């Protein structure tokens, strides 16, 4: 199972809910036949700096897409947190989506490649670096 509806209220900084589909399950091994979409409920669930950064750079649709792609491309994945990060040595800021994935390392690496490919093909270049996934293996 990719996602449990009972797990929609977690101790994450975001709330991920099940809605309609954008990505089909045909490209994802072990995905259910029913397409699914995961959406970030942003107004009350993200920190103020994260929300402000997302409004400023119009990143909310890309957060939705990143969460959706993570849930679809990794067989067992969960979103741990979504927060604004910055590089203290260089003028660089982004939103980091921490994802924990389970499974054999080869499958996770293949899924990471599929995620990256889908992300680069779906998101404009100027927004790609502003939303990043931090992948952890459980």
Describe this structure in words.
By secondary structure, this protein is of the alpha+beta class. It has one domain (5-137). The protein is 33% helix and 31% strand. The protein contains four helices and five strands; from the N terminus they run ββααββααβ. The strands form two sheets. Strands 3-4-5 form a three-stranded mixed beta sheet, with helices on one face. The two termini are 16 Å apart.
User: Mind summarizing the main beta sheet?
Assistant: 3 strands, mixed
Question: How many individual helices?
Answer: 4
Which segments are poorly predicted (pLDDT under 50) over 5 or more consecutive residues? 1-39
Distance between the termini: 16 Å
Overall, the morphology is globular
| Helix percent band | 25-40%
What is the average per-residue confidence, as pLDDT, rounded to a whole number?
74
What is the ordering of alpha helices and beta strands?
A: EEHHEEHHE
Helix- and strand-based class? alpha+beta
Number of domains: 1
Say how many strands there are: 5
Strand order of the largest sheet: 3-4-5
Please give the radius of gyration in angstroms: 14 Å
DSSP strand (E) fraction? Answer: 25-35%
List descriptors:
disordered N terminus, single chain, 138 residues, 31% strand, globular, 5 strands, alpha+beta
Briefly, what is this?
The chain has 138 residues and is an alpha+beta fold.
Helix-strand layout with pairing:
Layout: E1 16-23, E2 36-40, H1 48-57, H2 60-73, E3 76-87, E4 92-102, H3 105-122, H4 125-128, E5 131-137
Parallel strand pairs: 4-5
Antiparallel strand pairs: 1-2, 3-4
Helix pairs in contact: 2-3
